[in-house]
Amino acid sequence: MEPCQLSAAQAAVLIKERKLSAEELVRSCLERISARDALVRAWLHLEPDAAIRAAREADKRPPTGPLHGIPIGVKDVIDTLDYPTTQNSPIYPGLRVGRDAACVGLVRGAGGLILGKTDTVEFASSGRKALTRNPYNPAHTPGGTSSGSGAAVADFMVPLAFGTQTSGSLIRPAAFNGIYAMKPTWNRVSREGLRMYAASLDTVGWYGREVADLTLMGQALGLPLHGATIPLRGLRVGLCRTPMWSQIEPAGANALQQAAERLADAGAIVEPLELPERFADLRAAHSAIGQREAGIAFLPEYVNAYPLLAQEIRDKVENTAGISDQTLLDSYALADACRPVFDGLFGASLDVVLAPSAPGEAPEGLHTTGNAVFNTTWTLLHVPCVNIPAGVGASNLPVGVQLIGPRLSDARLLAIAQTLAPVIDVDPQRGLRELW
Amino acid sequence: MEPCQLSAAQAAVLIKERKLSAEELVRSCLERISARDALVRAWLHLEPDAAIRAAREADKRPPTGPLHGIPIGVKDVIDTLDYPTTQNSPIYPGLRVGRDAACVGLVRGAGGLILGKTDTVEFASSGRKALTRNPYNPAHTPGGTSSGSGAAVADFMVPLAFGTQTSGSLIRPAAFNGIYAMKPTWNRVSREGLRMYAASLDTVGWYGREVADLTLMGQALGLPLHGATIPLRGLRVGLCRTPMWSQIEPAGANALQQAAERLADAGAIVEPLELPERFADLRAAHSAIGQREAGIAFLPEYVNAYPLLAQEIRDKVENTAGISDQTLLDSYALADACRPVFDGLFGASLDVVLAPSAPGEAPEGLHTTGNAVFNTTWTLLHVPCVNIPAGVGASNLPVGVQLIGPRLSDARLLAIAQTLAPVIDVDPQRGLRELW
Question: Using CB atoms and an 8 Å cut-off, which of residues 112-171 of chain B contact chain A?
Fold first, then answer.
């Protein structure tokens, strides 16, 4: 087994036990990138020599932090000390800010090594797509906007990577690439140093190849540890088809159904969960908030670099959709009202929500990154979501389901995911078999 | 009259008419700084030669943007292309990010010149105080955390400056320095590139020496123009003593009372406004949210630079106040519920709220920056606030009152302030008389 095939959690143990060096791991990742990235195109910025030097330095220090010696990919809308932050925008071709985003500083503090920057849709918003391809079938999108991070983790180029979600940019690529993802509660992890798109929605999240990877990164980012193992038997799972169910595809419907059945067979109490009626309007509210807040965030580029800004983003600044102040305030009010209602569903009769991560498999072509219809409600509710790989569809591409908890239950949600993942993700070796 | 004595609005007209050059204005500001800053200590970073060069370049271009050739001070928690961002923290003594914050990019796009960076309380939060003194009496604080920006605008060192408000850091220094300030609706102006303290509270605002200055800057920042003049006669003013009235001092009470009487005498309809009862709990909610969100924002420094972080900030990261997740969520819910209620007060029977900007005059000493008790409710409500100078107290130091509108009424609030300011601010030449 090559070191780059190890999950972050596996590698962390071996490094701690001095059975694997950070340098070996980083070299293995770089070799994999070298072999595969001409096809996958996950990476925008890499400095292999610097990465090897940093790994050697890490090997000289005693392992202290949870991520000691673990290489990490960073979506190129997130600032790092040592790489450019181009945001896949022609406005910032070589911008170097020389300062770590909060999340990057925290993983460094935990011993992590920043391997490089991954491709993204322009500003993690709209416009230029990433050049990244789906590792399972390069004719298909890896999803977006965290395209490079999702594909890089799936393709064994790096065991952990940061992505972001404002609509569905983190969970959807996880589903399309057959990997794990954690979107924490909004502002549970500082978004400072992440390019702003919509202030009240933007969320930093991360990818790994098993739940233990997500937990390891969560630890570095300041999530509390959930000590106890949560038993599966009797766990109350709310099967939520969501008000957007008409947009599900056979692969997505099948994955959700199978996950629910497997959980029930294993002893969980799975019951349908119907969201209160007004939750159906959260999708439109998310759209209004996202567009108007984008209009605020991208005004500087609109003023100073109009010719280099994507038309889709100009439209948001110009508010061509004509979203009124009152609609914006009503949208905030709806979201504000629904959040405690959703949190309140949990407790006596509900432990976790099970819902689709995306309509189905990754669409063909790189002109689209897929549809966020099954993500925006949860983003707007500010609740934590974990993607679990859940088999494949008719095109033999991965499909995912997501687990969702109430706000600030991040650590508990990861513990629940740890219990449920082995039941849902019945072919965890598929990547090693198909991509290697 | 020296050019630096001009308000931004006055200078902009003269520059546009080619009766004043940007270079003359910048040189005049630099001379004033040279003469006074050893005493006032408003500035952390200045590059006089670069500023003069930039002014000369501006003089070569035709005046286009509303701020053409106008020098602007920037609180040192806000990034600029050309200066360090030290945040008054020993952790970042020479940090240069080489990228403008959104607000700075917008003023540059409008033709503004960044004169330099102004002193601030550590991270605009707590810990190290600015070295800045109150220009009216150097034994007194200029307020904080936007200490340098407030004092610099008051002392004729620069006609406009950016500050920030998470509790009362913008409006309070305006009151203590006898100048005008605009705190816009939360996220009406992008806070990107402002050091994060509390994500759902941090607001970029600005100082000027008359309402027209605030409007000019607002235009550069993308606020719509409110075309028509708002007549004073019949304007419905809600005199709001707030649930914190027990903490008012004689100077503050007197200023509010006089402002109300003058407005009534001039034809406004001034009536007491009692906030709904549960609004009294917003102060505690603000404190809970501010502390918990600070714990998220400052975790990277806590992990990576603990010895250099102020104990007050460490305490927030450690949550020594013991604010539970439920208290945090309840605090969000209260604020979320009160916002539309406050907005809804306006309309048929209310045009603007008149409230204290601070308890009274600036306290003596630099160990304190004064009390934000009259600011935090409005910050948490996300509503726009304008400080208007309102005479002096027993110590002959300035006192202010604030005008407050509903969310997203920023342009209208500035138009109302334009109408009301001449009635409230009865001695607008006081700075020229006392500080020159």
Answer: none
